[in-house]
Write a structure and sequence with these properties.
The complex is a heterodimer of chains A (about 290) and B (about 350). Chain A has twelve helices and two strands, in the order H-E-E-H-H-H-H-H-H-H-H-H-H-H. Chain A has a two-stranded antiparallel sheet. In chain A, a hairpin with a 6-residue loop joins strand 1 and strand 2. In chain A, helix 3 packs across helix 7. Chain A is globular, with a radius of gyration of 23 Å. Chain B is α+β, with helices and mostly antiparallel strands and about 350 residues long. In chain B, strand 15 and strand 16 form a beta hairpin. In chain B, helix 2 crosses helix 3. The longest helix of chain B has 18 residues. The model of chain B has no long low-confidence stretch (mean pLDDT about 90). The chains are: A mainly alpha (about 290), B alpha+beta (about 350).
Chain lengths: ~290, ~350
């Protein structure tokens, strides 16, 4: 049974909802509206006159091979970041779910990276992977593997994927651990008595019961990888070398803020916004269905 | 069909000892009910036998093989859990077939065994349903079905009826008993409910704070409880206990109010003045003019019988069970027939039987 408090009249409810509505209006509706408007305009090279061009910016975008390249790159990047961070978090959460000594400390340590600012974590990865001064980077070059993420695009991509996935492991870990702990112990025990062992038990009992959590996390991770990794990428590679690590958000930034092509940049933002809306809708639909059962 | 022997089984969690040496021997096909208050270690005992927890020491011999250190999967034991522990993402059929598939049975064999079990339990029309689409009683049946399709050497029941409503509980109790007899599978059944314990078990094991107190048939546990704990635990309402001392060279009991009553069944060993506790069941208390004053505080009508709770002149609280509606007086005269006495040691609480001459 749902418990609801019914407020009489309109005054108090409006007053209570106002702060949230005001924040949403100022930090989301207004800039989003501006983005939509400017995505349909084009400025002259000196920024003196803007003309309305309708959907021309979008048409240009989808016929631009550079944009399509960036989109493809983003798909690979998102898939890799989500897969790596989810799999590692799942392994860690499974380990932390056992009755082990120092469990609380172990869990605390795993949650830590979430509190590290993206720029700081980027510096940390540079100190590890820099070809001359990085611990791992220097060692790789010494044992004969040519490692330089500033010259090699694949290596740069690998590095931003690693750094981004690492940041997200904590988040996934918390949710997966909670998900694992909400599986009734007796169900796992019943499976043990039925003779299910090790990975088979994990695959046939635990994983299916964990699927709602995993699905939720897949969406959250895709959104994270697509939109929130901007500071990490910017601090590590600035999208380079060349355009090797230029994901869609980085491209929005470069085209809009550096190259001052506000119209195209806004159009790209609007496309991204549409993508987030679609992902969120999928998630709501799924979770809503679950809740209704 | 298998025998189960448990020898000196102990379990401690860190410094806390939960089971202090349990010995048991079950004949093939026997149903033993382990009964005790919560925290007495009965569930721990069951988990040790199942292999879900490791014993601190002791042996668990199933069909001649010591399984105490084996993985649960290697023991060939099935268990019915209190919350049923059905796999929520599988259909009723798959719930029952899961263990058989792991054992690598051929598909037609699995189907045949699941259908047999489903017929026995009346689950045929429900085989494609998911557990969440079932009622409590149906889930309970599926849990039983999952246990019986495996045809295990040993059944374990962990308070399987405690989540059901009263009517269903009575019905399922009879069903479990019938099923167990029919299958003839050796079973351990844990419960805190004395009615379940009395009706289901071939024998009862009463556990108290991790110590086995009495192992006997239900009627023997009821008729000759081994100590005051068992006497107070089995039987409802609980047995009345009156403080007394041994008198007349061990042939009688002297009560607090000075009255002396001869034992009906013979002399007890011990010096006069030795502290006793005399137990008498509420249904054995008699109304008798000239007996002790009994001030009734509370009347609990149960239909076929009535329980009167009140105080003796000494302030001692006792309960009396009478057939039918019972008297309506607020003060009654009661007496305690010596033939119904249970004599216990006043300090250790152990039963004292008459000396055999």
């Amino acid at each position: 049974m749902e418990r609801r408090t019914i407020f009489p009249g309109w005054g108090l409810p409006v007053l209570l909802v106002m702060p949230q509505l005001a924040l949403t209006a100022v930090f989301f509706l207004w800039p989003a509206g501006q983005a939509i408007w400017s995505s349909m305009t084009r400025a002259d090279p000196f920024g003196i006159r803007t003309t309305f061009v309708g959907l021309e910016n979008f048409a240009d975008l989808f016929s631009d091979p550079l944009y399509l390249d960036s989109a493809g790159r983003t798909v690979v990047f998102c898939a890799a970041v989500s897969a790596i961070s989810l799999l590692l978090a799942l392994a860690l959460a499974t380990a932390a779910d056992r009755e082990i000594r120092g469990r609380a400390l172990y869990r605390f340590m795993l949650i830590w990276p979430y509190a590290v600012a993206p720029a700081i974590s980027a510096v940390l990865w540079i100190l590890l992977l820099h070809p001359q001064i990085g611990l791992v980077g220097h060692w790789l070059n010494r044992i004969g593997i040519v490692w330089d993420y500033k010259l090699n695009g694949t290596q740069a991509m690998l590095m931003v994927i690693l750094a981004s996935a690492w940041k997200q492991i904590s988040y996934n870990f918390i949710f997966l651990l909670a998900g694992l702990q909400s599986i009734p112990k007796s169900i796992v025990e019943a499976a043990r008595l039925d003779g299910a062992k090790g990975f088979f038990r994990f695959r046939t009992i635990i994983l299916p019961l964990l699927m709602p959590t995993v699905f939720f996390l897949v969406i959250v991770n895709l959104v994270y990888a697509a939109f929130e990794t901007f500071p990490t990428v910017l601090a590590l590679t600035q999208g380079g070398p060349g355009k090797a690590t230029e994901t869609l958000v980085v491209k929005v930034y470069r085209d809009g803020v550096i190259n001052l092509d506000v119209g195209s940049s806004s159009a790209q933002s609007v496309v991204l916004m549409a993508a987030v809306i679609v992902l969120t809708a999928v998630q709501f639909r799924f979770l809503g269905k679950r809740g209704g059962e | 069909m298998a025998t189960l022997v448990i020898e000196n089984l102990r379990k401690s969690f860190g410094p806390v000892a939960v089971l202090h040496g349990v010995d048991l021997a079950l004949a093939s096909g026997e149903m033993l009910v382990i009964v005790g208050a919560s925290g007495c270690g009965k569930s721990t005992l069951l988990r040790l036998v199942a292999g879900l927890d490791a014993p601190t020491s002791g042996r668990i011999v199933l069909d001649g093989r010591d399984v105490a250190r084996l993985d649960p999967s290697a023991r060939d034991i099935a268990m019915v859990f209190q919350n049923y522990a059905l796999y929520p993402h599988m259909s009723v059929f798959d719930n029952m077939a899961y263990g058989l598939r792991i054992r690598g049975l051929a598909k037609p064999d699995i189907e045949r065994r699941v259908h047999e079990a489903a017929d026995i339990l009346g689950l045929r029309p429900l085989l494609t349903r998911k557990p969440r689409q079932l009622s409590g009683g149906q889930r309970q049946r599926v849990a039983m079905g999952r246990a019986i399709v495996r045809e295990p050497k040993l059944f374990l029941f962990d308070e399987p009826l405690s989540n059901l409503d009263a009517t269903l509980r009575v019905q399922m109790r009879a069903e479990i008993r019938r099923l167990q007899r029919r299958m003839g599978v050796t079973s351990l059944y844990v419960t805190h409910d004395q009615v379940e314990a009395m009706t289901l078990g071939d024998r009862l094991l009463v556990l108290h704070q991790g110590v086995p107190v009495q192992l006997a048939t239900p009627m023997e546990v009821f008729g000759r409880p081994a100590n005051t704990y068992v006497a107070g635990f089995i039987g409802a309402p609980a047995m009345n206990f009156l403080p007394a001392t041994l008198a007349s060279q061990g042939t009688a009991a002297r009560f607090a109010d000075g009255t002396i009553q001869r034992f009906a069944d013979g002399r007890r060993a011990g010096a006069d003045g030795h502290k006793l506790t005399i137990g008498i069941r509420p249904e054995h208390v008699e109304f008798e003019p000239g007996g002790q004053n009994f001030q009734v505080d509370l009347v609990e009508p149960l239909g076929s019988e009535t329980v009167l709770i009140g105080r003796l002149a000494s302030g001692q609280l006792i309960s009396v069970k009478v057939a039918g509606a019972g008297p309506r007086d607020e003060t009654l005269m009661v007496s305690f027939p010596a033939s119904a006495f249970h004599v216990f040691d006043g300090t250790t609480g152990l039963r004292i039987d008459p000396v055999v001459n």
